[in-house]
Design brief:
single chain; alpha/beta; four-stranded mixed β-sheet; 7 helices; 4 strands; elongated
């Protein structure tokens, strides 16, 4: 059973890498180890939310790109949901797009492990290890793709405040107890946020 489970989860993860762009990010793109194991119970909802919002018009040096990825890695762990999104009005006229959403599940409680056959535990533990690796790889590569394809175009048409206004309800409605918004941008001086900070922002013009 362990070998079949490991093979099944590996195949599911490979399929997840090929999720069509129109569907990516709308649902959890990380296969569940609990579902793959056919357990009668599931992982509790994630306790933490990491929402990464990257300005696609912001070019960063290789060192800063590495810093962004390192910070994402540091924030990921068990019981964590992550969202990788980009925004830019200067790139193909799209504004905000969620590229991937993933959940790293919680490990079983001691009581749950005591009620699972011993021969099923090894496969589940391997799956959870691979799930964490797969999730981090997905988050890293997605963020790197956004950062490396930054247009470097002027940010005048970017509206960072509107991007924050768009994601705020999503973050507020998420049931996670701890929530982190990681915004990557250098365009504040060219956005309506600058007018907001200076007292000249008119919300009716949004």
């Amino acid at each position: 059973m362990d070998k079949r489970l490991f093979t099944l989860v590996g195949a599911l993860m490979l399929l997840a890498l090929g999720v069509p762009q129109s569907h990516a990010g709308l649902v959890n793109d990380i296969p569940s180890c609990y579902a793959a194991s056919h357990f009668t119970f599931s992982s509790p909802p994630p306790d933490r939310l990491l929402y990464v919002l990257i300005d696609q018009a912001t070019p960063l040096s290789p060192a800063l790109q590495k810093s962004v990825v390192d910070n994402i890695n540091h924030a990921l762990g068990p019981a964590t949901k992550f969202v990788i999104a980009e925004f830019s009005r200067t790139s193909n006229n799209h504004y905000l797009q969620v590229l991937h959403t993933g959940i790293i599940e919680s490990p079983m409680t001691p009581n749950e492990r005591n009620n699972v056959p011993v021969n099923a535990l090894g496969g589940f533990d391997n799956c959870m290890r691979d799930q964490a690796f797969f999730a981090i790889h997905m988050a890293d590569t997605t963020a790197q793709q956004i950062l490396q394809s930054a247009t470097g175009a002027p940010n005048q048409s970017n509206d960072i405040l509107l991007a924050l206004k768009t994601v705020a309800p999503v973050i507020a409605q998420d049931p996670a107890r701890q929530k982190v918004l990681f915004l990557v941008s250098n365009g504040f001086e060219n956005s309506s946020f600058a007018h907001f900070a200076s007292g000249t922002f008119n919300p009716e013009q949004m």
